[in-house]
Amino acid sequence: MPASTKLSNSVKALCFLARNSSTPQSSATISSSTGVNASKLRRLLADLAEIGVVTTTKGASGGYVLAREPENIHLQEIYCAIEDRKAFHLDVTSMTLGQSDDTSAINHYFLDLFAEIQIEIEEKMRNLTLESILERISQKD
Amino acid sequence: MPASTKLSNSVKALCFLARNSSTPQSSATISSSTGVNASKLRRLLADLAEIGVVTTTKGASGGYVLAREPENIHLQEIYCAIEDRKAFHLDVTSMTLGQSDDTSAINHYFLDLFAEIQIEIEEKMRNLTLESILERISQKD
DNA sequence: AATATATGTTACGATAACTGTAACATATGG
DNA sequence: CCATATGTTACAGTTATCGTAACATATATT
Question: What residues in A contact B105, CB-CB < 8 Å?
Answer without folding.
Answer: 137
